[in-house]
Request: fold
Amino acid sequence: MYKCILLAYDGSATGQQALLASHEIAQWSHAELMLIAVMPLPLVALGSESGVHNPTLQENEEMRYQAILDSGVRQLSEGGLNARGEVVTGDPVHEIVRCAHRIEADLIVVGHQHLDGWAARWWRGSVSKSLIEHAPCSVLVVITH
Reply:
């Protein structure tokens, strides 16, 4: 039985499907839900040669991620579930695994959309595949086409 479920949430169609799956599992098992939205590192963190840091752009991105997260938490809370959320910055796999350890998650739920073409698969990699390798608990990958 799951007591604590971690949902990696980005508000996308795939994320919405993962949110629905999390809702059903949490309702069935009376689990707590933690949503995490992972923002990419700002350009300045990648090195001075990579780009110019724009604090206003960074603040806008933080507000956008927070709004997406708040929407997901609200949907779950309105459904009668105990849900909370957190926006973090960094590598998605690292941050999701770190949060799972911290909250002692029993299950990580993540959405996945199949990538078209070998170049897209090679270039972007797969968060869900990496999570399976590094997660401290079970991982549910919700697939949309």
Summary: The chain is about 50% helix and 25% strand.
